[in-house]
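Lab notebook page, bench 4
Experiment: in silico fold of construct C2
Operator: M.H.
Input chain length: 211 residues
Purpose: comparison with the prior construct
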Amino acid sequence: MAAPGATIERMEGVRTPYPQAARQLLRETLFGAARDELQQRAWSEITMAEIASAAGVSRQTLYKEFGSRDEFAQAFVIHEGERFLDGVDAAVLAHLDDPRTAVGAALEVFLRSAGEDPLVRILLSDDGAGGLLPFVTTQGMPVVQWATGRLTATIEEGWPEAPADKARLLAETLVRLAISHITAPGDSPETTAAATGELLGPFIDEALGDA
C-alpha cells in the first residue's frame, strides 16, 4: 500500500499527490453511480445510501465528502457541465480572429450538446418535485458562478487585452442565456446562436474586437 506522501502517476506523466488522486477517483465513482441511477429513475426517488452502495462505499463516506444531499447535487451538476464547457472552450479558441463568430459558435456547441445529452433530457423532465432542475434554475447560483468563472478564463485566454470587467460580464450574460435556452428551448441551436451574436454583437466588438 502506498504511503500517505506517495504519488500516483497519470498517463500523461503528470504526478498527482496520492490523497488528491484518491479523492478525485472517489468523486468520479460517486458521480458515475449517480448518473447510472438517474438512467433508471428520478432524482427525487434516489437516496444517498443507494448512490453510496452503487459506488461501493459507505453512506458515511459520501456524506463526509459532500456534506449534504444538496451539496452533492450541486457538485454533480457542475461535474456534468464540465463536459459541455470543454466543447465551448474549443469553439471559442478556434475563432480568435472573429470574436462574434467565436461567441456564436460557443453557444451553438453548448446548446446542441446539451440538447442531445440523455442526462440533460432527464434533468429537464423534472416536474419540480425534488428533482435536479432547481440546481440549474432557482438554486443555480453556484452553477452560474462556476460556469461564469470558467468562461471568463477562456475569454481572457483568447483575448488577454480585454478589460476584465467586460470579459466577466460577457461570460455571465452568455451563461445565463445558455441556461435559459436549455431549460426553455425555442429555436434551433444555430438560430439561437445567430440571434444572440447579433444582439450582443456591438458589446462583443467593444469588449473583444480590439483586444
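Observations: The first helix runs from residue 18 to 38. Residues 13-67 form a domain with the Arc Repressor Mutant, subunit A fold (CATH 1.10.10.60).
Next step: discuss at group meeting.
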